[in-house]
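The aim of this short unit is practical: by the end, you should be able to scan a pair of folded records and say something sensible about each. We start with the first protein, listed as its amino acid sequence and then its structure tokens.
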Amino acid sequence: MAPVRVRSEVLPRNASLAIGANPYSRPVATLVIVVLAAVAAALAVNLVLTRRRFAPLEQLIEEMEKVDLSSPGPLLPDSIDGVGETREVERIELAFLRMMRRLEAERLRAGSAALRAQEQERARVARDLHDEVNQSLTGLLLRLEAVREAASPELEPEIAGTKALANQAMRELLSLARQLRPTALDDLGLTAAISGQVDQIARGEIEATFSQEGDFSDLGDDVQLVVYRVAQEALTNAARHSGAAQIAVTLRRDDENGIELEVADDGRGFAFEQSERGLGIGGMRERALLVGGELTIESRPGHGTTVRLSISERAA
């Protein structure tokens, strides 16, 4: 039997590594890179689509935040019309419009109730002044007259002075009662009541004029009260604080601009940082808002003051 020869070869050192290497390692790495790139692309596309879908919603939120709820009948941007680019945005717009209508209706209702409550309280105080305090002053005058007849002549000047003071107090009380509850507004209407206020100021050293355009006979009671009170306050400010020589009051009404009251004087004017100190401007603004009106004031030191009340025909 012939001997068997075994041939052995020495492999290179790195040959064993080549044999032990994973033949699939390079394709797996490539696959991972491709998958990661696909995921990144999908995320980028999804982000773009999400932004495009939510862009109308973000725009709607920005427009809603611009709405001033403190203004009468807040003007909504044209973009908020109940028609959205997506169904979700359209539903939000419709809900927002319904909410704004409810808020406006509730504000008008609450404003009307507050206005009536104020006027009822004014009427009560006016009645108390007329019926109780005025009667007490009348009794005082009768007593003084009885004392004068029985007193010595030396006391005559003192009694006459006291009677003069009592008569002055009575006139001031009656004037205050008429201001608290203007009977002319109930009996004669808005234009006659404002005209009476202007005539009363014109009796002094101030030249006051009144002009009116349009028909005001069908105005609601709340609107008439607000217009009268704003005119009353503006006239009082002009007469007492402005040092004006002339005051012009204009009351007009037309279908396009609604009702507009303007009280202008040529007095010293004022800076607006002083406007809330004792001039009653805050009260006039609140009254205007109660009936959906808007109050604007133009004034500069040394250039007079113009108070303008605007009420839309819809609110009237």
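Turning to the second protein, read its sequence before its tokens, just as you did above.
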Amino acid sequence: MSLAYYACIALAGLLLGSFAGCCIYRLPREISLWKPARSFCPQCGAQLRAVDNIPVMSWLILRGRCAQCGRPISVRYLIVESLTLALFLAAATRIGWPAVLADLALVMVLVIATFVDLEFLLIPDEVTFFGIGLGLIFSFFIPLLHHVSSGLVSLGLSLAGCLAGASILYLVSEGGKLLFGRYKILPPTPIRFSLEDSATENPRILLDGEPYEWTTHFFRSRDQILVRATEVTINGEKCQNLDLRFFHDRLKTVRHDLPLTEISELFGRSDHAEFPREAMGLGDVKLIAAIGTFVGWQGVLFTIPAAAFLGCAFGLIAILLRHKSLSVRVPFGPFLSAGALLWILCGQELLGVYERIMGL
């Protein structure tokens, strides 16, 4: 390919990387991508001039600060734009035309999903469903994406990848809920606890000063938090040896059935607490479905184990370095994205290495 070709790819990477940064900020905050049409400072709301919105360069020239208010602008924008540029160029060097167009679209989906998941522990449906639609469209019009000549055959392989990926991760998710859907806190002696912010959208329980928020523990309608109180005071009523079952919007005991909004005070001591834990969110299932439309069932069978390996390695390193417990939530979406990128950039080579090692 000519230098002009790579220059066009680089320019597309910079421009679309800037757009990805916009999506990452706006989508999870439910801000329209089109209004306001121009980028704005997250701190003061001032719309950015064209000269202050040049991908990568503007952030570096302004030293990561808004030209209007002078307050910091997240380094995430620089990372997203630079990463998108690098991935676009890597894909262009590894993948031929026109299949590269589809893989560049997949790169955009993966970058947006990764950074939203890292910050909010969720992947917006707008990203995954749009990715599924793009994958199906590209598969039909660029059958070379699945190494066939027929658009209908390519579309079938795309659907097979979508269904295979979603089915595998959904079964893993349901199995994980059965095996690891709850974790317990069992202090050697009773510790203080209290319910805070009960009238808000995100109540929390404090256990010996450590907060356990609703948004990080309630994922399904049947989820509940169990606190076995050796002593507790609920709206002035004192009780002993009482099991408190907190649901998303209410508290139930053998004596009470109270909406959380009607609880003015709740505190006591406990030696046993159980919290729900999500093994894997449906956002991950939808993301692998989107990935599958681009990479087919073979790519899915590579991506999922690769993501699991990378996730396990990261978790073990984090525990060793930070002494964190296994109950800490680590988003799986970024590892799925990494696994998919490994497949489209060097999947066949990695399979060849594996086969040589195994003597196949």
